[in-house]
Each structure stands twice: as structure tokens, then as C-alpha cells.
Specification:
single chain, about 475 residues, alpha/beta, Leucine-rich Repeat Variant, Rossmann fold, 11 strands, elongated
């Protein structure tokens, strides 16, 4: 059949009966799909009877397009047909489209059908039902039914209901989003991170990037048990969540670690740190955004398979660990990224744009860095990437495990303010050497190093 969009438009506004030639279920799928897809807006008096047989078509695409066109008519006489399709069609997309067409009618007769579909086993169908019911926002019955879904097992449904009825950012006194407390700018505190964090007011930080101490793998981190180690990190990252501004980022650098065996008759123990921390972060409200894999040169990894190369016996293979994870999380919010960006003036946004080559994939090839004082130091390149991608100029960025101060140095280089904590006096000495005293900011924000007692007094003075 020689069918064009112009010809269809003429048929729509003329004699509807001529359309039957093109909407006949016996036509080939290509013709049917073209006709259904190109019908566009339909006049109020359009007879939808031609679409009804196509809702039983064996091809799911044809069924979906037929239902979509029925939905354009907003005619209540099709409610029962659409309800039956939403219950019994085998294709999820078709069922969702049927619900969408019911919701589009915006009629009270659709309410019982939509409420009944809230018990559908398919979360995607329920999400479409919610959209249809939200049209009747002043209906108390609907409001109460939707609120109950906050306990639905599906996390996406929970989020939609939380954002609509339990807005996490409502009635909260926020500091101006782009601003942060002056007393935290370019400050390093020598003290226990948890004790320091308790002094920081809510929503003070724009970005956190850190690599926590590895469980008993270095001489600077000794814990009684792996559980104790995870509990410590959970407590720290919960505080980080509290002091992070709405919708802003927490970037965590971790990797599995190996605890060497205590004797030849014992095996070594490998701990999957990033995978064990992740559930804690989700539970406390962080939303997982991305996983980036930091890949190091083969030569930088400890050789774990020298024995296997010789005997080649199965079960004994151990690959060399050349990767670490850069896990990207965002503080829970119902606001889009655009909202965060719009909190800054145009000049700041322009000055913060990322120029030059960007990392197109989630694999970053970066050489490790070695430091005479710290045994596990951030590469400067890694810190620069994270700060550029996840913060704006003049933001306050935070590293709770400051180490040798590479993150703070990167912040200075990129015109961000830094705040950091470090419990080791030895590393504080190294940080003082590493962090330039000639700040890129005015003299009010030259780098300052405080003891816990000094910092407590500073916080008290700024309350």
C-alpha cells in the first residue's frame, strides 16, 4: 500500500471509514505500525472502533500502538477494554500503556480501576498507576492509598512516594546551597574523625572524596575485628551524609585487601571491603550513581601467581590486583542535577567547566603514587579528576582521612576550599609540607592546622 503521513491526515479529518483499509488486522506489520504511529492527534469525533481489533493482534508493538491511539480519544466507553488489557496482556509495556490510557481520561470512573491496579505484581505497572492517580491530588482516599506505598518492597516506588508525600527536603533550614562555613575553609584538624564530625553543622560540605584506612593491612589501622572496622566506617559515613549538602556527592575509593597468613599451615584472608560497605551506604540514604575502576600498571601490583605459573594446577590461580574502585554516591534528594547547578551564578558555573579531554568510560588508567611517609597515598591525578567532575569552584571539599594531604593540595590547585581530618601526628607533619602555604584564595583562608581542642573552640566561637 502506498501510504504517507499526509494521506493519513486527510483520512483522519475526512471519512474515517477509509482508514479501515490501512488498519485492517490482516495487513502486514510494517503497514499497520506506520499507520498507527503516524496518526498523530485525533479529532474528538474520531471513531476508535478500528483500533479495538488491533488490541488483540499477535504482535505486541501493534497492540501497544493501538492502545496508545485509544488513549488519545479519552473516551470512557473504552475503560473496561483497557482495564481488561491491563490485567491480562502478557507484555509489560502493553499493560503499562493501557494504564496510561486509563489515567489520561482524568475521570472519576477510572479511580476504582487504578486503585485496584496498585496491587499489580509488576512495579512498572504500579508506577504508571501512581502517575494516573496523582491527577486527583485532592482526593483523600487516593492520597491515603498512595501513602501506604511508602512501605512497598520496590525501592523505586518507595522513592516516588517519599518525594511526593514525605519530602525529605521540606521545611529544613538550609544554608545557601553554594556557600559553606568560613571556619571550615582550608582547615585540617588533627583528631579523631568521628569526634570532629560531631562538631560540624548539617549541610556544610559540597563533596567528600576519601580512601578509608585498609582493614589491618597497614601499620596505621588496627581493629579488633573486621566487623568493628565496618562499624567504624559506617559511623563515619553516616556523619558525612549529615554534613553533605542536598544532592551532592560522596566518592569512596576502596578495594578488596588481603591479610597475610600467619603461618604456612594457614591460608591468607581476602576481605571484599567495597562490597561490604555498599549496603551500609544505601541503608543510610546515599544513592548509588556510578562505579569507576581505577586501573594501575601491571608492574605496580604484587605478584600473586608466580607459583601458579610454575605448577599450573587448578584452584590455585590468583590474579594480580591492579584495580581499585571509585564508588560514586549522591545524597538522597528529590531534586535533579539541574537544581544543584542553578544554585550557582553563571560566572561560577562557567569558571568550573571541565575543559580538555574527559574520561569517557568508567575505567581510569592512573599510575599509583608513592610517598616517603604514607604507605597508601592518593595520586594527585585521581584527586584532580574527582574534584573537577563533582564540584564547583569555591566549593568546600572534604577528606575525612587526610593522610599526606594530596586531596587538599588538589583542591587548592582547582580553586576549591578544603577541609580534612587526620588522627596521625606524623601525617599532619607531611600534610604541612605538601599543602602550599600560598593559598589561591585571599589571606583569610590560608591553610590552618588545628588540634582537636583548638578546633572545638573555633566551632564554639562561630555558633
Amino acid at each position: 500500500m502506498n501510504l504517507t503521513k499526509d494521506k493519513l491526515n486527510g483520512l483522519i479529518n475526512g471519512n474515517n471509514g477509509e482508514l479501515l483499509e490501512y488498519l485492517n488486522p490482516s495487513n502486514d506489520i510494517k503497514t499497520l505500525a506506520f499507520a498507527l504511529n503516524k496518526l498523530g492527534r485525533l479529532p474528538k469525533n474520531f471513531d476508535g472502533k478500528y483500533f479495538v481489533p488491533l488490541t488483540k493482534h499477535p504482535n505486541e508493538k501493534i497492540r501497544l500502538l493501538a492502545i496508545k491511539n485509544i488513549g488519545k480519544l479519552c473516551n470512557e466507553k473504552y475503560l473496561n477494554l483497557l482495564n481488561d488489557i491491563s490485567l491480562h496482556d502478557e507484555n509489560t509495556m502493553v499493560r503499562r500503556e493501557a494504564i496510561s490510557s486509563i489515567g489520561r481520561m482524568r475521570t472519576n470512573e477510572a479511580i476504582p480501576i487504578l486503585i485496584d491496579r496498585l496491587n499489580d505484581p509488576d512495579p512498572k505497572v504500579i508506577l504508571q498507576v501512581i502517575r494516573g492517580l496523582l491527577v486527583f491530588k485532592d482526593n483523600e482516599l487516593i492520597k491515603n492509598k498512595l501513602k501506604e506505598l511508602v512501605n512497598h518492597p520496590n525501592e523505586v516506588i518507595q522513592t516516588v512516594i517519599e518525594e511526593k508525600y514525605y519530602n525529605i527536603s521540606e521545611n529544613k533550614p538550609h544554608r545557601e546551597h553554594s556557600k559553606s562555613p568560613d571556619y571550615l575553609k582550608n582547615v585540617v584538624v588533627n583528631g579523631d574523625v568521628l569526634e570532629v564530625l560531631k562538631l560540624i553543622e548539617d549541610e556544610s560540605i559540597h563533596l567528600t572524596f576519601t580512601s578509608p584506612p585498609y582493614y589491618n593491612a597497614r601499620d596505621y589501622s588496627i581493629y579488633q575485628s573486621y566487623n568493628e572496622y565496618l562499624e567504624f566506617l559506617r559511623d563515619v559515613f553516616k556523619e558525612v551524609y549529615r554534613i553533605t549538602k542536598e544532592g551532592r556527592y560522596f566518592i569512596l575509593n576502596t578495594s578488596p585487601i588481603i591479610i597475610p597468613r600467619v603461618g604456612r599451615q594457614y591460608s591468607s584472608k581476602r576481605y571484599p571491603i567495597p562490597f561490604d560497605i555498599h549496603p551500609f551506604l544505601i541503608e543510610m540514604g546515599w544513592e548509588f550513581i556510578d562505579d569507576i575502576v581505577w586501573i594501575k600498571p601491571e608492574a605496580s601490583a604484587k605478584d600473586r601467581n608466580s607459583g601458579f605459573r610454575q605448577h599450573r594446577k587448578p584452584l590455585a590461580y590468583k590474579p594480580n590486583a591492579v584495580t581499585e574502585y571509585i564508588m560514586v554516591y549522591r545524597k538522597k534528594t528529590n531534586k535533579l542535577i539541574d537544581w544543584n547547578i542553578k544554585q550557582y551564578d553563571d560566572e561560577t558555573v562557567k569558571a568550573s567547566k571541565v575543559h580538555g579531554e574527559i574520561d569517557k568510560s568508567n575505567t581510569w588508567f592512573i599510575d599509583p603514587t608513592f610517598d616517603r611517609t604514607h604507605t597508601a597515598v592518593f595520586p594527585l591525578e585521581l584527586c584532580l579528576k574527582v574534584i573537577k567532575y563533582y564540584s564547583f569552584k569555591n566549593d568546600l571539599v572534604f577528606d575525612p582521612f587526610g593522610g599526606s594531604g594530596t586531596f587538599c593540595k588538589a583542591a587548592q590547585l582547582l580553586d576549591r576550599f578544603f577541609f580534612s581530618t587526620e588522627i596521625s601526628k606524623k601525617y599532619i607533619v607531611r600534610m604541612k609540607e605538601n599543602i602550599a602555604q600560598e593559598s589561591f584564595f585571599d589571606t583569610l583562608f590560608l591553610p590552618k592546622f588545628y588540634t582537636m581542642l583548638e578546633f572545638s573552640k573555633i566551632v564554639e566561637e562561630n555558633k
